[in-house]
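User: For a benchmark we're assembling, each entry needs the component sequences followed by a predicted structure for the full assembly. Here are entry 17's components. Please fill in the structure.
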Amino acid sequence: MKKKLKTQFQSREEKQNTEDSMKQTKLMRYFYLSVILSVVLFSGFYTFASPPERFIIKNVSVFKPDGTWQEDSFVIVKGCKIEQIGRMNTLEQTDIFDHEYDLKGKFLYPAFIDAFYKGFQVEEKEASTPGPARFDSQISRFEERQASEKDDVRAPFEKRNYFIKRKAVERLLLTEAKMKEVIEQGFAILHIAPPDGIYGGTATVISMISENPTEAVLVPETFMTLYLKPNQPDYPSTFNAIIAELQQLKEDSTYYQKMKRFDFSLLDKRLQYIPEYDILYPYFTKEKRFIISISNYPEQRLIEQLTRLVGIDPILVGHPEIWRRPLAPNTTIILPLNFKPNDNSYYAQFEEKLKKEAEEKIYPQKLAEFLKSHPHIAITSPDGINHKDLFKNLQLLGKNGAPESLLIAALTINPAKILDIARYTGSCEAGKLANITVSDKKITEPDARVSMTVVEGKVFEFKPPADKDKKDEKDKKPGMRKKPGGLQ
Amino acid sequence: MKIKIKIITTCFLCLGMTLFFTSLGFGANRLLLKNARIYTFDRGVLDGYDLLIRNGKIDTIAKNIQPPPNVPFIDLTGKSVIPGIIDSHNHIALYGDMNEGTENVTPEVKMEYLVDADEPSIYYILSGGVTMIHTMHGSANPIGGENVTIKMKWGKNPDELIETRALRTLKMALGENPIQKTPSFPNTRMGVSSVIEKAYLDAIAYRKLQDKWNKASKQEKEKMIPPAKNYRLEALLDTLDQKMVIRCHSYRADETLELIRLSKKFGFKVAAFEHLHQAYRIADQLSANHIGISIFADSWNYKAEASEFTPWGLKLLYQKGVEISLNSDTSEAMRRLYTEAGKLRRYAGMSDLDALKTITLNPAKLLGMEKYTGSIEIGKDADLAVFDGHPLSSMSKCVLTIIEGEIYFDRSKDPYVGVK
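Assistant: Structure for entry 17:
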């Protein structure tokens, strides 16, 4: 009886359960159906309401990927991509566009890419203070050490300017006004490198499409930046100590990679396990790459020593005297375009005359020759922030015999190749991102001005400078000018 | 057989042709210095002799060498030729900071990386007849970095300047400097010697670990943890294996004797003491242990530990047979190192040639370069300085500086002659 009762009871319970579950499943089905329907309806409605914007730029000369100009051409942009490029006589007259830009006599390039930009980041107070405060900080650190009673242990990485964990993606600060300045110079993509630190951290690639960092980031992490800057209070205070320590760091990180099967507490007490070793390991095995910034000619030799001793294959961020020392043919170079000889340089040592001659003649000539022998170079702004001087210097290079196609490639496709985004951008081809710059003259000619920039289909037009400047010029008549020197 | 004979004859022909052309002057860089007063150490002062340089080496020293065709020659009547001056202690031509004083023991640091061939001070010292220098790590910490010996080939590629035939040397420092700069340990002279002792004990322990690992069988190795590579301790082991010698900065006799004791205990070799002002007090110990000194001629009292000094002490060292070499420490003093050597004639009672040795052959010996340079001998590098008068006089000037047969300084072509 008991058993029967039990079974009946069970069966009743089961029935109820099954009915409940049936109800639930039906409800869920309705719910899913409604969700799917709403998604379909909404997407349909959305596509119907706002199809991707389609516009045309007409009557321009287009810079082709092979380095030649195609005159009287049009470019059709759909959404964020280039749909079609062709000559004006092949254009179908029946086609309808949302906008038409007739830019007769102007020149269309792929938008420029800055391969080494230091702006757009949150400023933070660094742990080390160079200069006169050096001794004070040393004493304070000494007191810290006394407190912890550890004599032989080195200060932690971040106190010694090694920001190995730092990422430029996490420190982005994009403001509209500054972005406009960048776009006004024809740039659509920036490679943002951390500004300082022996290890500065990893860099990122961003597009000038949005102020929101999550939308703007194209490649979150690219290369680890290295600045070999000595004169700091803690251990590597000279160049050769930096090299020696990098050598030791390579040894240590590979050692810990091999020793992972052991208990770390058993290992040598001097070598404490630090999580940074895991981050560094792929850089020393050439899986990832370093990007090293150097400021003059003797430092170039230090990098050679570094590559020889540590066995890395870095990307060089060059300097105006890079032509003075032969480079290995395979080295990838990013060149901040600058003709000012360094204060330690031979040309800056003796007389002002020689320095001026170097700035105006020797350096542009030598760099133009250097460009010809290294056609895969990327060019960036002189100081890593301002692009305004860049075009003046480009014109000087052009005057001294650097071919125009090479210069444009150094601003567009070459940096794209270095940053590994050449599949998406870097040249004017159908299917690539609609990153376009239009200028009224060729950029190697004087007074060339960017009149329009397209960033992923978003158009920014710039009017020629307002009449204010002309008025100013009128005021500056020779008779009206004040004599310099006052009382003379 | 016929083919063999043909091959042999063509070989001989080729040899003959090359010999003929080389004798004519093709394929060999040659320079003839005519009618000079040559200061040699083995043959004495040779008046009115000619000197032929070939491929950067001294080829012949004789009277009336007929200038071969296509060989440039310079007439040096009334001028004297001495071996190129060598400065055994200074800190020039180093790009950036030379003192890694942030930690007590930094032998992994190499000055070789920092050589700057463009530095103008190289040109200034070429005008004083200096051809080779030993440019060193600073004295901010007890065990500093590895020094480098370079030739003064101004403006060349830095790799060409570095002299690989020279001894590897490691800088150590005793006394005030390593104590005062860092606020941390060591604070006394006792502390400095204990730092050096502890560093070597660490190095020996590291070697024992390595030996244990190397001797272990494959089965044992699976259970063992291999020792991690440490560049710092390996540099110290190099000094224990005599691959590298010590150049030690010191002023006082007591601490110097302490380092000699340490060198005997651990087995590293001290090549020379730098600046050792109280050297005359321990001349016996220095000569017994074959340790040289690199010293100023008559400069002292610039800081507390440098107060006790007498230039007459150099006479005592000279009599005891200690290897004396003069140093400059700055590019300014290096330009007139030859007048410093002149002072030894008075203070130490040296002859001209012995005084000249203190800035040429003796520093070369301390750097292990006496086979290659440091004196005018056939087969040695043609590192020469030409003076317009007596080479130890303050009235004479250096006219020509030649390094490995190439002229690097010529006063007649100097753009700044007469410019005030």
